User: What shape does this take?
Amino acid sequence: MSAKASPLFQGACLPRRHLAIKSFAATIAFVLAGSIGSSVTGAQTAGQNANRSSGSQQEMTPAKNLAKRTSEMPGAVPGAKYVGADTCKTCHDEIYTKHFENTPHFALLQGHAHGCEDCHGPGSAHVDSAGDPTKIVRFSQLSPAQASQRCLECHETNLENVNFSGSVHLRNGVGCLACHSPHHATEPDHLLKNQQTLLCYGCHATQKAEFERPYRHRVNVGLIQCSDCHNPHGTFVDRQLRTAAGQFPICTNCHAETMGPFAFEHVPVRQEGCTACHTPHGSTNPRLLRVSQVNLLCMQCHTPTANSNVPGIPSFHTQNAKYQACTMCHTQIHGSNFDEFFFR
Ligand code: HEC
Ligand code: HEC
Ligand code: HEC
Ligand code: HEC
Ligand code: HEC
Ligand code: HEC
Ligand code: HEC
Ligand code: HEC
Ligand code: HEC
Ligand code: HEC
Assistant: This one.
């Protein structure tokens, strides 16, 4: 089975990439299981590719095939050859020892990969010219899309990144290097340029304000993270949201009890989803409710005029104080196994 046969690929609206790259990436990928350098035969590749359709592991493209593609990068000199990272080190010792050797990309040197040149392209012309900076791929000269393309050659088959090309972020000019830095990451994990929450707030001030409201998911103290609900690399649903197994809202990963299955479901929970009644980030109302008074929330739907599907409230529900606290009686507001009116 080829990568394209995976259901995840079918839903994707991936932009057309360079043809050579596309067919290559679609047919050859190998699982990076700690030993990126181990030589990969065609048969192994095919087998592990099938493996990938079951979504099991992170994969990388085999380094021995990178030559053609890095030499096509903007800034690369046609005909340049690989010289090896040891040669780069002779002049760029600081980058090598302080900003490469101790990063995950050092793994590129195990086996057949080229290290520096896997990202910067073959370096012979650059070296022969005693370091002419125009004769090597410089990320500072690439557009976000071009730079991301370089990264995606190895990382796109990873499920985390599989929809990056179609993500809201890339479409708005936010490429990998807005969040990651291979040489100058400040975070110990994932080569991030800043602690995740601060990184996101750097561009999302509105959300920062939302998480400062009295009732909120405690993202600011690290109890949960933006990336628990969102995938910054894009997803196949709106708002770059993750989904829980079975396409349930991501919320049910942590609040499983709200989703049932129930003998008596409260229809909007499944149909409109959690955000029909809750704000996900923060709210001035307890329980992250969208509306300050619970009865007003319920009456948005349970009014005789609203919608023929939705029953109005019975006439004995006078709007005196006793009946305003709807969830005092209808306590199992997300659904119940015992009672069609959600009393228990
Ligand atoms: C003979 C010494 C020498 C060797 C070998 C060498 N470089 Fe350079 N490199 C330089 C010099 C000099 C510069 C220019 C530095 C500057 O302008 O600040 C440079 C610049 C660069 C730049 C651009 C930096 C920027 O400011 O954007 C990159 C990327 C780079 N080198 C990568 C490499 C890689 C990868 C290798 C190995 C294939 C390599 N270099 C080998 C001397 C060398
Ligand atoms: C995973 C891809 C990748 C690898 C591998 C890599 N680089 Fe870079 N390099 C980058 C990116 C991206 C930048 C832009 C700065 C940044 O985001 O960290 C960069 C920037 C640079 C610069 C510009 C100066 C600077 O500090 O930003 C030099 C010089 C350089 N790299 C040399 C090297 C050398 C030498 C190696 C091998 C020892 C190497 N790179 C390996 C991706 C890579
Ligand atoms: C908007 C910010 C942002 C952008 C853009 C972004 N990332 Fe990430 N990336 C993150 C964050 C945050 C994490 C950590 C996620 C977590 O903890 O679940 C991460 C994690 C990762 C990881 C490790 C996690 C894993 O499960 O594989 C890789 C690899 C990665 N990113 C690569 C990339 C590449 C390649 C690109 C560009 C194609 C990219 N990222 C673009 C924010 C970003
Ligand atoms: C030639 C293949 C290749 C290229 C190109 C490449 N990477 Fe990587 N990347 C790797 C390998 C191999 C690792 C180490 C994987 C591991 O340790 O699981 C890695 C690790 C990472 C990680 C850390 C993952 C984690 O789980 O913490 C991030 C983030 C990342 N790369 C981002 C980038 C970005 C951004 C670019 C583009 C500038 C890039 N990579 C280009 C091969 C590549
Ligand atoms: C508890 C899950 C959750 C967490 C944690 C979370 N989000 Fe969201 N976010 C959502 C949901 C759900 C939506 C969609 C809201 C809607 O459609 O009404 C959303 C929407 C957004 C939007 C789109 C704008 C909007 O209001 O519709 C942005 C931007 C965003 N979130 C950024 C962030 C950032 C940045 C963080 C971390 C600081 C974060 N989110 C943390 C669930 C979450
Ligand atoms: C470099 C700036 C930048 C960073 C950093 C950044 N974003 Fe964004 N983000 C944007 C832009 C620009 C958009 C598209 C415009 C918009 O919706 O605000 C966007 C859109 C989004 C959306 C989708 C909104 C929609 O309408 O679909 C979500 C969700 C989101 N970002 C979450 C995050 C998370 C989580 C992080 C941290 C891991 C993060 N962003 C980091 C700039 C950034
Ligand atoms: C990663 C786990 C996680 C995810 C995903 C998550 N939540 Fe939460 N949620 C929590 C935790 C933990 C608390 C308790 C927060 C606290 O004590 O500060 C909480 C609290 C709440 C509360 C307030 C409960 C109370 O007693 O006041 C509501 C409502 C809520 N979440 C709704 C949602 C919705 C809606 C979503 C999806 C958009 C969601 N949650 C996604 C972990 C999660
Ligand atoms: C029809 C409106 C509605 C929908 C849809 C809804 N909720 Fe609620 N939810 C409420 C109300 C009202 C409360 C407050 C109950 C109370 O005050 O006792 C609540 C309370 C909560 C609480 C606090 C703990 C609890 O059980 O009382 C969590 C957590 C929660 N909801 C999560 C979710 C999640 C996750 C979803 C989606 C699967 C969801 N809600 C969908 C109305 C709704
Ligand atoms: C987003 C719209 C919406 C909101 C808000 C909402 N409901 Fe509902 N509710 C429905 C729908 C739709 C049904 C299913 C009607 C049917 O059986 O076809 C329903 C069913 C019910 C039922 C069961 C009625 C029956 O005859 O089986 C009760 C009780 C109920 N809701 C109470 C509440 C309460 C209390 C609140 C406020 C906490 C509330 N609802 C908020 C849409 C909503
Ligand atoms: C004092 C307890 C109590 C409170 C408070 C309460 N209800 Fe009820 N609710 C009931 C009872 C009892 C029934 C009828 C059950 C039956 O018919 O057997 C009912 C039935 C309903 C029904 C089903 C109507 C139908 O025809 O299917 C809806 C909808 C409903 N309530 C909504 C609400 C809303 C909205 C609020 C808040 C404004 C609320 N309830 C407050 C006790 C209460």
Notes: The chain has three domains: 3-155, 168-241, 257-336.
